UniProtKB/TrEMBL annotation:
GO terms for molecular function: DNA binding; endonuclease activity; hydrolase activity. It comes from Ganoderma leucocontextum. It comes from the Eukaryota. CDD domains: GIY-YIG_bI1_like. PROSITE patterns: GIY_YIG. This is GIY-YIG endonuclease.
């Protein structure tokens, strides 16, 4: 076969090699790249391994995150167990707190407050379960337990709370966290925490709070003991200034001149009278059942009739519920 095709000249060895390769491909095909899918919480991750390039590609289909608010009234699905008495108080005040601690006289409860409130900040309440009176305050970051212990254990906080705890015993009180402040409290954002406290003070009007505004002593009245202490440290210089006219008797001539001046004073004009009348605020007090308790020409008259301060009624008029001493509802007589 001198003039035959060239493939005829292929040796038997090459033919055997070709046959082996053919059957190898037939029975042992190349493995395809695999895609592994497995769940991680709410996320499905697709991981594709490419052996030829020796690298992995990660594909994240979806990521779902759930956020929990620190505001108590948004977590309505969370039920916190407490005594029937305290549950009644919370319903009356329409509160849904974050944490509730009772049996404050037990050591394990004190330890629980210490551990569970670490690193937290917000608004707290100390409730007298017997009288339904309460105190509201704010705690900066990691200061909840310090506030709790200062008020009801070491008596370095509110004097009113101190007297109440000594009278009614610690076991009849509850420590409640009303709302958590989401950020770490600093000098820059401390005003936000005080505003949050002020909101609860104006909304609930706590009887155990002396100050009517968070971070302010406006409207505060000193006790008789404090007045005596301040009087004892009164400086000699101020004492001399204050005693210049103290106990001084006027001469008969001076008294007569003052008398004549007062008698010759012109009467108040009608215009001035109308201005005085215009600055009054007539109000009406209702009982909780809706019946009228009384109508008053001024707030001062109403305050005297129910034995409270004028500012108590003015604060109640600024609130939505307009409750005074939790016994009456106040409304403007002329709207």
């Amino acid at each position: 076969y001198v003039y035959g095709p060239k493939w005829i000249n292929i040796s038997i060895f090459h033919v055997i090699i070709l046959i082996i390769v053919y059957y190898a491909i037939l029975f042992f095909p190349l493995k395809r790249s695999r895609v592994l899918i497995y769940p991680v919480e709410n996320t499905m991750k697709n991981i594709k391994y490419n052996k030829l390039r020796n690298k992995s590609t990660y594909l994240i289909n979806s990521i779902k995150k759930r956020g929990y608010s620190t505001i108590s009234h948004l977590n309505k699905n969370v039920k916190i167990s407490c005594s029937e008495r305290l549950n009644t108080i919370m319903k009356e005040l329409e509160l849904n707190p974050v944490y509730i601690y009772e049996n404050l006289d037990k050591e394990n409860i004190k330890t629980q407050i210490l551990n569970e409130t670490k690193g937290l900040s917000g608004i707290y309440m100390i409730v007298n379960k017997i009288t339904k009176d309460y105190y509201i305050g704010s705690a900066s970051t990691n200061r909840f337990y310090a506030r709790f212990s200062n008020h009801v254990i070491y008596y370095r906080g509110s004097k009113i709370v101190k007297s109440a705890v000594k009278k009614y015993e610690l076991k009849n009180f509850a420590f409640i966290i009303l709302e958590l402040y989401p950020n770490v409290v600093t000098k820059e954002n401390n005003k936000e925490l005080l505003d949050l406290e002020d909101k609860y003070l104006k909304l609930l009007l706590p009887n155990y709070n002396i100050l009517t505004e968070a971070g302010s002593s406006f409207g505060y009245k000193h006790t008789e003991v404090d007045r005596i202490k301040m009087k004892d440290v009164y400086s000699d210089a101020r004492e001399r200034i204050g005693s210049l006219n103290r106990g001084k008797n006027l001469s008969p001539e001076t008294i007569e001149k003052l008398r004549e001046k007062a008698l010759n004073r012109p009467p108040m004009s009608d215009e001035t009278k109308q201005k005085c009348i215009g600055h009054t605020r007539p109000i009406v007090l209702y009982n909780l059942n809706g019946t009228v308790y009384g109508k008053y020409f001024t707030i001062l008259e109403a305050a005297k009739s129910i034995n409270c301060g004028e500012k108590t009624i003015r604060r109640a008029l600024k609130t939505e519920k307009r409750l005074v001493k939790r016994q009456w509802k106040v409304e403007d007589l002329v709207k």
